[in-house]
Amino acid sequence: MQKIQTPFYYYDLDLLDQTLSKMVRARGDSSFHVHYALKANAEAKILAKMKATGLGVDCVSGGEVRYALEQGFGADQIVYAGVGKTDWELELAISSEVHGINCESIEELVVIAEVANKLQKSANVYLRLNPNIDAKTHPNITTGTLRNKFGIPANELWLALEELAKYPCLVFAGLHFHIGSQIEDLSPFVRLCTEVNVLQKALRDKGYNPANVNVGGGLGIDYKKPDANPIADFDTYFENYRRYLNIYDNQQVHFELGRSLVGQVGYLFSEVLYIKKTKELDFAIIDAGMSELMRPALYGARHVIQNVSSVLPDHEYEVVGPICESTDTFGKHVLPTTQRGDLLQIRSVGAYGSVLSTQYNMRGENQPMFSDEENAQQFFSALHAEV
Ligand SMILES: Cc1ncc(COP(=O)(O)O)c(C=O)c1O
Ligand SMILES: N[C@@H](CCCC[NH3+])C(=O)O
């Protein structure tokens, strides 16, 4: 078999199917609607699965809105958030008639109205509120506290509604929240329900009856044990919302899940280039680096790494990439004794992996491999024959 150029991302589409079926079962077919957070992974094959499952999309830029439309999602399935929407992005969203624009400031509300008036269109607006809840996740991926740039502080809700009421072209679609990502302890979601209940009750008391509420995404995955827990705990996640969120008659509840749908589906395959020993450390220098997978350098994130071509006794390595940055490291890992030419797989990289890759150091683009392709079958049979 012709050698496949490393590094490359591999996606297990069977696991994606299983994840989606489990999610759909846990969600039920009630008033709960899931929009896939496209920023997590935008591969067309992955999006096609989301579409076939009947999910909508959560977009955070005009580019994502345009791409989602090109991939065949209906505008009525698209929600669009972002603290810095430009005029052309708003024009695209409003003229396409997306399901909702999640407005993140009172200043933005004014611009949405200007753009809608210019286009002689109306716009469905959600108010993204910042509920000041600590999501108990990594500080860099916490979004719902007042130290974060996201959303309108919850105590400015009435000011925002007053502003919104000035523009007949704006339709108040509901409240929106998103408190953070990779949330493993689910108690912040329960707290979110309590906050949403208070705010929705206050809205009702003042005569507002929004048709929707959007609670965002954030459900975490098990980065430490991807084989033991390949699928996130969707049952508890949705059960919490069923139990703790007060949903009004005919109100639709929207979710924006990203990582939990695709995280475990992705692998990054990389070849070992050199083993370099110093007095301090044994380095395994591999051909994937922060240009392919940024998460360790950005957040100190740890991914399980496995050597799929060695069965020798274990040894500890500092696994590093080839990039000219000292943060280009995947950390210490115990691997079977590793040599030049061995193949490593880095796990749980389906979300916020390839989408965050850069051209830093002019590393060139990598072609992904999907489990339903012939070359994937050949690749795995050759691998199993070798080991
Ligand atoms: C507004 C919004 N919705 C949804 C998501 C998706 O989050 P996750 O991938 O953690 O489910 C994000 C990312 O954190 C986000 O910023
Ligand atoms: N890029 C982050 C997630 C960001 C979520 C989007 N707001 C990660 O890799 O964990």
Automatic annotation (TrEMBL):
Pfam families: Orn_Arg_deC_N, Orn_DAP_Arg_deC. It is an enzyme of class 4 (lyase). Pathway: Amino-acid biosynthesis; L-lysine biosynthesis via DAP pathway; L-lysine from DL-2,6-diaminopimelate: step 1/1. Its cofactor is pyridoxal 5'-phosphate. GO terms for molecular function: diaminopimelate decarboxylase activity. The modification N6-(pyridoxal phosphate)lysine is found at K39. Keywords: Amino-acid biosynthesis, Decarboxylase, Lyase, Lysine biosynthesis, Pyridoxal phosphate. Belongs to the Orn/Lys/Arg decarboxylase class-II family. This is Diaminopimelate decarboxylase. It comes from Reichenbachiella agariperforans. The lineage of its organism: Bacteria, Pseudomonadati, Bacteroidota, Cytophagia, Cytophagales.
